[in-house]
Amino acid sequence: MLQKTIIQGRIEYGTEKSFKMALKMYNQRAEKYYKNDVLFEPEEIFFEEGYLLNIPRFVKQVYPKTLRNTATLLEYVVQFGVSGQLNFWALDEGKILMYKLMEPSSDKVAVQQYIKGKSLMDQKGKEEEAIVALNKAIEKYDRHAQAYERRAKVNFMLKKDHDALRDYNKSIGLDPSNPYAYLGKAEVYIYKREFAEAIDALQMTIKKSVALQAVHWQGRRLKGKLHLKLKQFKEAEFELKLFTNRAFKEGNPNLAWKRDAFFDYGHVQMALEDFNGAVNSFDKACTIESGNDKLDKGKRLRFRGIAKQKAGQNGYKTDIKEAAEAGDKVAKKLLEELS
Predict the structure, then answer these.
(1) What is the C-alpha to C-alpha distance for residues 49 and 17, in angstroms, rounded to an integer?
(2) Residue 15 region, left (φ>0) first, then alpha (ψ -120 to 50), else beta?
(3) Within a domain: residue 249?
(4) pLDDT digit string (tens) for 140-165?
(5) 102, 118, 152 — which closes off a domain?
(6) Residue 74 and residue 130 in one domain
(7) Could you read off the pLDDT of 267-297 as tens digits, one per residue?
(8) 166 falls within a domain
(9) Average pLDDT, whole number, for the chain?
(10) Of 15, 101, 315, 332, which has the fewest beta carbons less than 10 angstroms from its beta carbon?
(11) 329, part of any domain
């Protein structure tokens, strides 16, 4: 049975010696262990200029044995690298059968300091220590695009937006295939209220990722929100419709933003005079009990009531009344006008 296989990413080896060793082992193991039943000829993915293993995006229906052989072989040669990552998916009718994130984890100083920096940045109060570790990774390998991207994120956490933007640009210059660098760059532009620039960066986030990645949907949601803010309603509708229709599993960071997206989508539909659609979206926003947004119950009920009134549906007064009872001041004024 054929399985849809998606592979993308790149690994940098840093030196001619490491590159040639990885290439040698790829050839030897492909022939000895797998009888060359693998997806790639070495010349298709190994590039001496830059000492790279590069798979921009590969999508194909593949037999399971070939898929497993290729995954195991790539996992092996990735370990000769100094930076980068490969994403490897196998799917059957949209269901993920296998996912592997392949990154170097050898004892090379640049590798270990990068891993240390990534771990520290997720620990509250350890941001400065994370910077030190990532600095060491960059000192050992100054083309470490992922280390620049992670350092940019920490700088942004520390409110150093100028340093963050510099590091994101450096990361993108070294590896223009990393969607996380574009997403981070967009977040800096949003903070600076440079929304057009943020939208451009979010478009690249979407382009450089696949729909199986959480970062792809983070980019779409934020892009939709910015289009709404700029009153670009058709563009906002496109992004938010896709996001709100997507089913996210537990653990996916986008799940906690579903309520916010429905609320934004409702506003877009109101602007486009799709009032029945707006009722449905605001209803979803009212139904979802929790989220990362700061949308209080009264505000959500008020807008559902307004949408119902615009759509000529019953129950709008009840919604506005409940919104007022929940402490929404605007709803209280609306209720007085309706009396």
Answers:
(1) 13
(2) beta
(3) no
(4) 999 999 999 999 999 999 999 999 99
(5) 102
(6) no
(7) 999 999 999 999 999 999 999 999 999 999 9
(8) yes
(9) 97
(10) 101
(11) no
